[in-house]
């Protein structure tokens, strides 16, 4: 059950046993994001969201980079030369696919295989989970060429790191490896590059065992409560669970209770119910 989309496109999708491996595919340009790629990624997300072969999306990069950030030539210089409307359009396309990715119907994992600079922090953050190679290099390099980390990057490090750490990387543009990125909370964990795909596959397989309606509810709930007061969150979580009960036509939670209490076939503290 493996299919791959055209290899000359700016993205590639390979379906393999429940996982859609979605790769940015401009390896010669270190997968930096130009307006074409940003526009096409909307199609890529439409595709994986609708395809039943995909239960988990892994976002990664072809070649030596995850992504070298925005394309300084095409996204900045050439777009700016076309005027402010072209700039806004380019921003809509890039911010738009990152937002789509953040709220995708299916769980997402960023597999950071190499260089990850500037604007690449946005798709990294948009993914629900992130695993890096120890060999990967992360950096807010914006300061090195004269801009502040925009496109969400400043907000992202404010959300994920301590204030001291975030300010340090914003102002110095210093790179960090995978292990440091994990220590600071930018990714969940870091493993040697040779083991990266195997580790991501393991995590994806765990997610694939879960009830997909519950996974979508749980990830959205977590992302929504970040900006809520405690009382609003408490109420929202009740309502969101009730919506999930309605959406889950398999009535998974009743089945989960039945297999534990009546059938005694599993223990929820130790594993998932059988779907
Ligand atoms: N924008 C435009 N072109 C890029 C970018 C980019 N962000 N990154 C790489 N490229 C191009 C290079 O110009 C080069 O093109 P060429 O073959 O036509 O000359 C090609 O990709 C390969 O790049 P090299 O620099 O030769 O690759 P190398 O492996 O030696 O270095 C590295 C990789 C460190 C990622 C380097 O390319 C680099 O510093 N890129 C820019 C990273 C960056 O700061 N991005 C912007 C972040 S800020 C933001 O996103 C808003």
Structure overview:
It contains twelve helices and eleven strands. With 275 residues, the chain is α/β, with parallel strands linked by helices. The strands form two sheets. It has a seven-stranded mixed sheet with strand order 1-2-3-4-6-8-11, with helices on both faces. Helix 1 links the parallel strand 3 and strand 4. Helix 1 (35-50) runs parallel beside helix 3 and helix 10 (212-225) runs antiparallel to helix 11. The longest helix has 19 residues, at 84-102. It is globular, with a radius of gyration of 20 Å. 36% of the residues are buried. Bound molecules: acetyl coenzyme *A.
The small-molecule ligands in this entry are: acetyl coenzyme *A
Strand order in the sheet with the most strands: 1-2-3-4-6-8-11
**Based on the structure, what is the oligomeric state of the protein chains?**
single chain
Task: Work out the radius of gyration.
Answer: 20 Å
Shape: globular
The ordered H/E elements are EEEHEEHHEEHEEHHHEHEHHHH
Share of residues in helices? 40-55%
Number of strands: 11
- Main pleated-sheet profile: 7 strands, mixed
Name the average pLDDT: 96
- Percentage of residues in DSSP E strands: 15-25%
So how many helices?
Answer: 12
Unreliable stretches: none
N→C terminal distance: 21 Å
Helix- and strand-based class? alpha/beta
């Amino acid at each position: 059950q493996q299919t791959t989309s055209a290899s000359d496109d700016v993205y590639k999708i390979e379906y393999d046993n429940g996982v859609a491996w979605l790769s940015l595919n401009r390896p010669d340009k270190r997968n930096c994001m130009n307006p074409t790629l940003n526009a096409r990624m909307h199609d890529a997300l439409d595709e994986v969201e609708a395809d039943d072969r995909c239960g988990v999306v892994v976002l990664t990069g072809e070649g030596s980079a995850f992504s070298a950030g925005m394309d300084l030539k095409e996204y900045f210089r050439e777009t700016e030369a076309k005027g402010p409307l072209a700039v806004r359009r380019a921003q809509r396309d890039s911010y738009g696919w990152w937002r789509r990715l953040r709220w995708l119907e299916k769980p997402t994992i960023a597999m950071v295989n190499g260089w990850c600079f500037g604007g690449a922090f946005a798709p990294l953050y948009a993914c629900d989970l992130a695993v890096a190679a120890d060999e990967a290099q992360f950096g807010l390099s914006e300061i090195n060429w004269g801009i502040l980390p925009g496109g969400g990057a400043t907000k992202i490090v404010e959300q994920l790191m301590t204030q001291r750490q975030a300010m340090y990387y914003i102002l110095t543009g210093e790179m960090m490896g995978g292990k440091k990125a994990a220590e600071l909370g930018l990714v969940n964990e870091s493993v040697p590059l040779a083991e990266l795909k195997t580790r991501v596959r393991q995590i994806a397989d765990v997610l694939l065992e879960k009830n997909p309606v519950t996974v979508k509810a749980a990830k959205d709930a977590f992302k929504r409560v970040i900006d809520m007061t405690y009382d609003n969150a408490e109420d929202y979580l009740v309502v969101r669970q009730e919506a999930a009960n309605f959406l889950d036509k398999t009535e998974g939670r009743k089945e989960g209770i039945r297999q534990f209490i009546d059938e005694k076939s599993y223990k929820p503290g130790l594993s998932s119910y059988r779907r």
